[in-house]
Sequence to fold (46 residues):
Amino acid sequence: VPLVVRMKGTNEVEGKKLLADSGLPIISADTMADAAQKVVAAVKKA
Fold:
């Protein structure tokens, strides 16, 4: 199950790197609108 994550804050860069390196199906988004679009795209793929 893919997970869409919007991450903002002090350790945003480090957090995004950890998620990217985790090997899990995590999709990063920059805004809530971007996250919503990525969720729709992920659902259509499934």
Remarks:
- The chain has one domain: 3-45.
- Residues 11 and 17 are 10 Å apart (CA to CA).
- The chain has a mean pLDDT of 94.
- The longest helix spans residues 32-45.
